[in-house]
Amino acid sequence: MVVFIILTLVAWLGGNGYICLRGWQALRHFPPVVKWGFGGLAGISALAILLIFVLRNSRMSASPWAHFLFQYATGWLVFTLYMVLFLLCCDLFRLLCHSFQYGFFCALTLTACLLIYGFLHYQRPSVQVLNLTVNKPVTGADDTCRIVAVSDLHLGMGTARGQLEKYVRMINGQQPDLILIGGDLIDNSIVPVRERRMESTLSQLRAKLGIYMVPGNHEYISGMADCAAFLRRTPIRLLRDSVVTLPNGIRIVGRDDRSNRLRKPLSQLVGDIDAASPVIVLDHQPVEPAQAVDADADLLFCGHTHHGQVWPMNLLTNRLFEIAYGYEKRGNTNIYVSSGLALWGPPFRIGTRSEMVVFNLSFRHP
């Protein structure tokens, strides 16, 4: 972990230093106040991310200016990524065409256009609809179930109450029988969520079979006890290595996050479940899909990966996770890893999409 932190810090400082150097060179004919202003802005932007960690547990984190600061500071991460990539391309092009003198301004223009696109793209989440057949019966007259599944809302300084209200309207608009939340409902601190009284917005969620959630790694970052206490003021039921039986006989198995190294294996959680019962498994991180297949689960829903959020980070998540995004069926188990409804940090989606997933399940007649 120490090595990773050091490498990340070196890359961050190196990338920002590279941008400052090329910017200073591009502005060499401008008045000194412009050059020094650019250097100061770049330096403050690079260090702004530190202020986020200082503010995250203070009451000021609930203010609108803290939300703006969070989006700006984390957005600078993506700005740095694309500026470095475009500057490298421009520098390589300059080796072939020595008269090319506008690399910095070209890189800046391309980065700005890409970030504008990424911001607008993020504002329009998609709805993924999957019609699935489960070869097990349910009790009662209705042999179908409409499930809305979301993950990674990251409520707090990034996803504010106004955005949450939009998400609640989207979810309720699907008229779900059941709502599932695959973890990371809270971001890095419970403080702005409590201060903005987001429990009142979450309490507007409607589903006749209930609303169930498993914790993600960010609930542990925020403080698991505080997050659990907050959720008790909402209709959301938190499942931590526990099983709940719905009125129609569907079993929902909620796994604790891997942050808890003592979490139970899935085989233990499903050990007492009747093999004829439909089983839905919620697990925030998609690191053990084989366990769900071995348990003959009918549906496994995960989040966590964000599908990398911005290119080329999705290439990295594809390497890190066996299933980094999307739908796959293995044996009788339908597996879906969501890219998440919201985001951590930078308010951009580039090469990925924010989404809500709707499962229309049809069950075998008894």
Structural overview:
The mean pLDDT is 94. Helices cover 43% and strands 17% of the residues. A hairpin with a 5-residue loop joins strand 6 and strand 7. It is built from twelve helices and twelve strands. The strands form two sheets. The protein has a six-stranded mixed β-sheet, with no helix packed on it. A six-stranded mixed β-sheet has the order 6-7-8-9-11-10. With 366 residues, it is α/β, with parallel strands linked by helices. Helix 1 (2-26) runs antiparallel to helix 2.
- Which percent range fits the helix content? 40-55%
Please give the largest β-sheet: 6 strands, mixed
Classify the secondary structure makeup into a structural class. alpha/beta
Strand numbers in spatial order across the main sheet: 1-12-2-3-4-5
- Model regions low in confidence, pLDDT < 50 over at least 5 residues: none
What is the overall silhouette?
elongated
* Extended strand count: 12
Radius of gyration: 23 Å
Order of helices and strands: HHHHEEHEHHEHHEEEHEHEHEEE
Distance between the termini: 52 Å
Mean pLDDT: 94
